[in-house]
Design brief:
With 237 residues, the chain is α+β, with helices and mostly antiparallel strands. 35% of the residues lie in helices and 14% in strands. Strands 1, 2, 3, 4, 5 and 6 form a six-stranded antiparallel beta sheet that branches.
């Protein structure tokens, strides 16, 4: 009878993963931890799968101490604590490394836009927050387009009870999802400052802020899931 193989020993988790475990035991999700360190949730997963996270150990220690001994639970406050202990990595020459990301630009005329898909939606569409904040600072108007399953909407496409009202603001997709646009230059759009306040109230989660508006105004089911989101800005006349 051949000898039985012993299961391979599970590699010990690095310190970043151990600290993330303790934060999860305290009630925070990986998504929350990603917001606290201002990174994508995929990086937190890589603490476990790719042994990453060494650069965030000090920040995570301070955050954990703030939770356990200071009784601090607010995500923006924890993020502020973490930011004091996170430094950008350097290149081989010693220069600060550039962070890859999609630039969000608003032209001098106030025209700007940003669009995110499923992966960014899962992390709260964080890359759209600077666009909304800058639009609010400049006193701009904004509109947005959302994409959800057709069954997620409460009103049929083109319904006057819904914001589009006309078919040209509705795009039906082959995967049984539908894009609908809310606000435009013709209708006046929305106050960017109001949406910036909504985003701040949602701890910086743009997806949650838009979802809440759609639910509050009776346009989608509460359990609906946004799969794509686009924000557009302009200067009011």
């Amino acid at each position: 009878m051949p000898p039985r193989r012993r299961p391979a020993a599970r590699p010990a988790r690095n310190e970043a993963a151990q600290l993330a475990d303790q934060l999860q035991q305290a009630g925070y999700t990986k998504r929350d931890i990603a917001r606290i360190i201002d990174r994508d949730p995929s990086l937190v997963s890589q603490f476990y799968t790719k042994n990453k996270g060494a650069a965030f150990v000090t920040a995570l220690r301070e955050v954990l101490a703030a939770v356990q001994t200071g009784g601090i639970t607010d995500l923006p406050e924890l993020a502020a604590i973490a930011s004091r202990h996170i430094t950008r990595r350097t290149t081989a020459s010693g220069a600060r490394a550039r962070v890859r990301g999609k630039a969000v630009l608003i032209t001098p005329t106030g025209s700007g836009s940003g669009r995110v898909g499923a992966q960014a939606i899962a992390s709260g569409s964080a890359r759209l927050r600077p666009l909304i904040a800058e639009a609010a600072r400049r006193g701009l108007r904004l509109a947005f387009t959302v994409r959800l399953a057709k069954t997620a909407y409460l009103h049929p496409s083109g319904s006057r009870s819904d914001s589009p009202g006309i078919r040209r603001d509705v795009i039906q997709r082959a995967d049984h999802t539908e894009e609908r646009s809310y606000g435009s230059a013709q209708t006046g759009g929305f106050d960017a400052a109001d949406f910036a306040r909504r985003v701040n109230a949602a701890s910086g989660d743009v997806t949650a802020a838009v979802h809440q508006w759609l639910v509050e105004t009776g346009r989608i089911h509460p359990d609906a899931h946004i799969t794509h989101l686009e924000i557009r800005t302009w200067r009011p006349r």
